Amino acid sequence: MPEYVKYVDVTKCDGCRACMVACKNWNDLPAEETNFLGSVQSHPKVTADTWNVLQYIEHENSKGDLDYLFRHSSCFHCKDAACEKVCPENAISYTEFGTVVIDQEKCVGCGYCVQNCPFDVISLKTYIDKNGKEYKKSHKCTMCTDRIEEGLQPACVTTCHTGAMEFGNKDEMIKKAEKRVTEIKERYPNAMVYNPQGVGGTHTVYVLAEKPSVYGLPENPKVPTSAVLWKDYAQPIGKMMIGATTMAVVGAFVTNKLFNKEGKEHDEDGGGGNE
């Protein structure tokens, strides 16, 4: 089964927000009350009920001119996803298409995925059960995996009237992105393909007009070392070689010391300091 990629060319986006409406409609996501931001942008960031957001950025370019930049913001669907590695319930997994999805039946709302996502695109939603007790679940963009399974494209892609988004074979989309960058370099000297390899590459690949930081994106996002050690080494070895009680103690240590914000910052800075 070939991997698929959502290709996003920010230089073609006109900020219409049709992608946001399509996502809300297809996924039956409720409307949210938000504060007026004073611009085209309706939400500060993605949330548990708004899985993609149209970002609006005013930027002074290298020539001293003012550029109005847009970016369709949603889950990147990393090939090596930190959220999948830190989930203690194996509620997050990869599909055959390369998308990263959350099994709501398994999710316990611990929030480790929220804390460790380098792009800050996962959110917790609070629910109330029939007994009045609160519980939480993690939510994010699924890249419309249910549509892909039926041979359809993601809802956001189908509604984009400027051709800023396409969906197709991974290699073809990456080649398209690279070609587009060469075409716009004269106008946008800092143009680049954003497909960070620190997370194994992503299944949402961008053509950016400026450096990632201009869009609020990390320049070189990586999976935290603590997450790699836990998922790829400690957890499987623990299951094979030590008892359940000892594994629980090890798990508690890791979650308390490594999967919190302080542990994440310590790991990224190499021992003291700080998308």
Automatic annotation (TrEMBL):
**Record-annotated residues binding [4Fe-4S] cluster 1?**
C13, C16, C19, C160
Gene3D superfamilies named among the record's database cross-references: 3.30.70.20
Q: Where is this gene product found?
A: Cell envelope
Gene Ontology terms, cellular component aspect? cell envelope
Q: Which UniProt keywords apply?
A: 4Fe-4S, Iron, Iron-sulfur, Metal-binding, Repeat
The keyword Membrane belongs to this UniProt entry's keyword annotation: no
**What name does UniProt use for this protein?**
4Fe-4S ferredoxin
Q: Which organism is it from?
A: Neobacillus piezotolerans
